Amino acid sequence: ARMWEMMNGLVFTFLILPQSLPLLIGACCNGKETEARQNEAGTDRGQKSKGLAGRHVRSYNHLQGDIRRRKLFSFQKFFLRIDKNGRVNGTKSKDDPLSILEITSVDVGVVAIKGLNSNYYLAISRKGELYGAREFGIDCTLKERIEENGYNTYASAEWKNKKRQMFVGLNIHGRPVRGKRTRRKNTATHFLPIMA
Predict the structure, then answer these.
(1) I want to staple 113 with a disulfide (CB 3.0 to 4.6 A). Which of 66, 95, 122, 141 is the partner?
(2) Measured over all CA atoms, what is the biggest interatomic distance in the chain, rounded to whole angstroms?
(3) Secretion signal: which residues (predicted)?
(4) CA-CA distance, 196 to 5, in Å (whole number)?
(5) How is 95-156 classified by DSSP, letter by letter?
(6) How far apart are CA 73 and CA 40, in angstroms?
(7) Does pTM top 0.90 for this prediction?
(8) Beta bridge mates, 142
């Protein structure tokens, strides 16, 4: 009966808490392997911390290279698309394959957006024009921010107009808005990332 209770508890733990697997395996194996791993990890931590000058250094490497496949649905009810010629505009069709985008983290809060089927990167030029770039460059780095209304905004990480950020935006007709005319609070620049 005791063994049966332990097995039920293990099954429950595996179903509910999969991250507890290493702990359970360590407990079942008298903890020898787990103890050895902890000693190795402690040694590694001690070696790493010697190089730091008393200050905790944060590592955000887990955020870099993260790829999300999404559709960007604008507040104006358009899906952002990049066509096979590199033109950026909006479409009402939710089934348009050119509206499927890959959003890749390139730095903390900075992303690159690439059309999955067109292979063009979403870019903002120095003049604030939206276009599709064949190769990734400085025009393609965008600051991603979640606004108060739950929508995301994407601003050029490189270019500004008179110290004001320039945003990706679509007007009420689905055409791109020039970055110089965009503002964070303007709903033409607000997009909902929807899983594709």
Answers:
(1) 122
(2) 76
(3) 1-26
(4) 44
(5) T-GGG-EEEEEEETTEEEEEETTT--EEEE-TT--EEEESS--GGG-EEEEE-TTS-EEEEE
(6) 48
(7) no
(8) 111, 156
For 104, list phi and psi in degrees, rounded to 5. -115, 130
- How far apart CA 107 and CA 64 sit, in angstroms, is 6
Domains of the chain from N-terminus onward: 2-50 (no CATH), 61-195 (2.80.10.50)
* Residue 27 in tokens: 């407990």
Three-state SS at 35: helix
Residue keyed to tokens 């020039």:
178
Question: Helix axis angle, 21-28 relative to 2-16, nearest 10°?
Answer: 150
